[in-house]
Design goal:
About 45% of the residues lie in helices and about 20% in strands. The protein is an alpha/beta fold and about 300 residues long. The chain folds into two domains: about 180 residues, Rossmann fold (3-Layer(aba) Sandwich); about 130 residues, N-(1-d-carboxylethyl)-l-norvaline Dehydrogenase, domain 2 (Orthogonal Bundle). The termini are far apart.
């Protein structure tokens, strides 16, 4: 009998719950570390409304902390927010074993280095979710559109473990691909995240439909994306400028929804300002690139984030 793949998930928010649930559908043994929603997930699992078909995700095990996991996971999936106050290395250290691959299913750019340095003997896999999904309340997730996932070994390549994960996602019915250059894939996702996530907050709660239908905001979004393309080229992972038009067209076609950053703002949760904008500006500074639009977004969003949490 083929041995089932063992997966441990950190982060039972919308993205983590949806993709972990799909991996469970494909036959993997998916355990989760749940914190604020521990009781709900433990007693009721997670109900997921999805354009691919509604389903009920019942984790193999529900734990309060990684220290409670006494097995050797094939994959440790980290789907938490990328925030300065979350020490991911400390969060997962008790569960990282020889042969465990660490999967970073998270937003942002240049987020892998610290994890790779802390666990030099373990493979790091970066995963990018191109999806419209939100957690409406503890134990309930609403998947509204898209769902494609892109995987790759960090900093480059496609390992045998990446292929195993890709096959599981494909068996679950999700569009999935592996890439030799996962850093370029991160830049490609940032191309959309950098304008639309911050602008949804700055524009007083505008959803994606409202943003893209406003002519001046669409032009501003395109200018922000041009700065991202310049930085990605300097970083050795150039993106084609045609992706700007594609991002605009895809946003015009997508079901209007509130971005993850906007949902965090409305619920008075910390926003991923550093992962999406701060790290990008650090790289821009490294390469001597002028980025007035990104710098403006960062300044505005930083003070909005601080006041929202006070």
């Amino acid at each position: 009998m083929k041995q089932k793949v063992k997966i441990l998930l950190f982060g039972t928010g919308a993205v983590g719950s949806f993709y972990a649930g799909k991996l469970s559908q494909a036959g993997a043994l998916v355990s989760v570390v749940a914190r604020s929603d521990y009781s709900v997930v433990k007693n009721s699992g997670i109900k997921i409304k999805s354009i691919y078909g509604d389903f009920h995700f019942i984790p193999h095990r529900v734990l309060k902390s990684g220290a409670d996991y006494n097995d050797v996971p094939d994959f440790i999936i980290v789907a938490t927010k990328v925030l300065p106050e979350i020490d991911i290395c400390d969060l997962i250290k008790d569960t990282v074993k020889s042969g465990s691959s660490i999967v970073l299913l998270q937003n942002g750019i240049d987020i892998e280095k610290g994890i790779a340095m802390a666990f030099p003997g373990n493979e790091i896999i970066s995963a990018l979710a191109f999806v419209c999904v939100s957690r409406t309340e503890y134990g309930f997730v609403d998947h509204q559109d898209y769902g494609r996932i892109v995987l790759g070994s960090y900093p480059s390549g496609i390992s045998s473990k990446v292929i195993i994960l890709e096959e599981l996602f494909r068996e679950s019915g999700l569009p999935v691909e592996s890439t030799n250059d996962v850093i370029a894939a991160r830049w490609r996702k940032l191309l959309w995240n950098a304008p639309f996530n911050p602008l949804s907050v700055i524009c007083n709660g505008a959803d994606t439909g409202e943003l893209i239908q406003h002519n001046d905001i669409r032009k501003l979004s395109e200018a922000i994306m041009k700065e991202i393309i310049i930085i990605s080229k300097a970083d050795g992972h150039p993106l084609d400028e045609s992706l700007i038009r594609k991002n605009v067209e895809d946003t015009e076609k997508m079901t209007p929804y509130k971005t993850s950053m906007l949902l965090d703002y409305e619920n008075k949760r910390p926003m991923e300002v550093e992962a999406i904008l701060g790290n990008t500006l650090t790289l821009a500074g490294k390469y001597g690139i002028n980025t007035p639009h990104l710098e403006t977004l960062y300044a505005l969003l930083s003070i909005i984030n601080k006041k929202n949490l006070s």
